[in-house]
Every structure is written in structure tokens, then in C-alpha cells.
Design goal:
InterPro entries: Glutathione-S-Trfase_C-like, Glutathione-S-Trfase_C_sf, Glutathione_S-Trfase, Glutathione_S-Trfase_N, GST_C, Thioredoxin-like_sf. This protein is of the alpha+beta class. It contains nine helices and four strands; from the N terminus they run αβαβαββαααααα. The chain has a four-stranded mixed β-sheet with strand order 2-1-3-4, with helices on one face. The radius of gyration is 18 Å and the shape is globular.
């Protein structure tokens, strides 16, 4: 049996199946990138809930795996060279899983880099900007009397959606007919913007017809439906 005892995080979240990839996460827009990817690839894994209500993400156990204190993170007992690999940052994890399984990242070099560029677009734009909209619409920021900060992020979210809408015109997915980690990286964020954050009307989501159709296609995938709820909240 694989021994993961050298990793302190397993003391807080014991591995019932140490031979499987261990996922430490919460079903947030960032977290579900990895759970969706794992469901899509069929790679055996064991999910562990990192409970924000208990400040789990800032516990010494979790920070032993990710010193930045953010979900998701993974521990793969069968990493490069057959040695365990601990990894954080959702974009890096998507790339790792794509290369490990040979799925959802094109083998053609040009197409591969096009997929990666959209993952970087998500990491640098979609996530941070949509997340700020969420703060000002659903969380503490909604109580700020000055609406200029909110409006700044709403305007940027609209601009980003416009970029996405233009790219998706006439396409099923960001790379055309091929569903890739580019799509997986963004589905949770767009779904969260209009669903969990309830900002669809504020950003005029219905006007972005191609993004809306893309989201519907993504949400129709069984692996996406499962991944959006993993790990199950307590």
C-alpha cells in the first residue's frame, strides 16, 4: 500500500485510499476546475472537503501542502517517476492532469498553446474579475455605499464576457470542436457569476448569446454536473 504519511496534510485528512490521487478542495469556481477535470478524465481520486467555515484553508495541515492557503490542492501518490507529487494552483493542476492522462489538451503544438493561453486568460482575468464582482454583489462589498468599485469590476466583467462571446461565435468550445482544459477552467466561473453570485442581470449576461450557449453545453455534460458538487459540502 502507498505510504503518504510523510505528508502532514494526511494527518488532518487521512487517505482511505492512499493509492488514489487526493483532492483537497471546496466546490467554489476555482475548486470545481479540478473536480470537473478529474470526473472528465475518470482518474481515480479521493476528495477531501476543506471547510472555509472552519478556516481549514489556513490550518497548518493544509498550508503544509499549499503555503498560500488557497484551494484546490492535490497529492498524487503516482507522480512523475512514480513518486508522490504535491501540487497547488488550479491552472497548474489542470495542466498536470491533462499531461498525466493525455486528455483535454491537444497534442498538436499550436493547438496546445492555444488551449494554454485561454487557461492563462481565465487565471489572470476571468477568475479575479468575476470574483470581485461576486464580492461586491453577494458578500461584504454589497454593503458599501460607494458603488464605484463595484461598477469598475462589473464593467471589466462585461468586457471579458464580450471577448469570450466573440471567440465563441460559431464554435462549440474555445478551441472549436475540441473540449479542452480551456473550457474546464472557465465553466465554474461563468456558472458561479450568474448562479451563486446572482450577477447575471447586472453584467447583462443574456446579451452574450455565444457564452450563454457554451455554458449550457458545458452544464449538460454529466462530468461537469458531478464535478460542480465535489467535494460534497458538510
Amino acid at each position: 500500500m502507498t505510504d503518504l504519511s510523510a505528508f502532514a496534510i494526511t494527518q488532518r485528512w487521512p487517505a482511505a485510499h492512499p493509492d488514489r490521487l487526493q483532492l483537497y478542495s471546496l466546490p467554489t469556481p476555482n475548486g470545481v476546475k479540478v473536480s470537473i477535470m478529474l470526473e472528465e478524465t475518470g482518474l481515480p481520486y479521493e476528495p477531501h472537503l476543506v471547510d472555509f467555515a472552519k478556516d481549514d484553508q489556513h490550518s497548518p495541515a493544509f498550508e503544509s501542502l499549499n503555503p498560500n492557503g488557497k484551494i484546490p490542492a492535490i497529492l498524487d501518490p503516482d507522480g512523475p517517476g512514480g513518486k508522490p507529487l504535491a501540487l497547488f494552483e488550479s491552472g497548474a493542476i489542470l495542466l498536470y492532469l491533462a499531461e498525466k492522462t493525455g486528455k483535454f489538451l491537444p497534442s498538436d503544438p499550436a493547438a496546445r498553446w492555444h488551449a494554454i493561453q485561454w487557461v492563462m486568460f481565465q487565471m489572470g482575468g476571468v477568475g479575479p474579475m468575476f470574483g470581485q464582482v461576486g464580492f461586491f454583489v453577494k458578500f461584504a462589498g454589497k454593503d458599501f455605499e460607494d458603488k464605484r468599485p463595484r461598477d469598475r469590476y462589473v464593467a471589466e466583467a462585461k468586457r471579458i464576457l464580450g471577448v469570450m462571446d466573440g471567440v465563441l461565435a460559431g464554435k462549440s468550445w474555445f478551441l472549436g470542436e475540441d473540449y479542452t482544459i480551456a473550457d474546464i477552467s472557465m465553466l465554474g466561473w461563468v456558472n458561479g457569476l450568474v448562479g451563486f453570485y446572482g450577477a447575471g442581470e447586472l453584467v447583462g449576461f443574456d446579451q452574450f448569446k455565444h457564452v450563454k450557449a457554451w455554458l449550457e453545453r458545458g452544464l449538460a455534460r454529466p462530468a461537469v454536473q458531478r464535478g460542480l458538487a465535489i467535494p460534497a459540502r458538510g
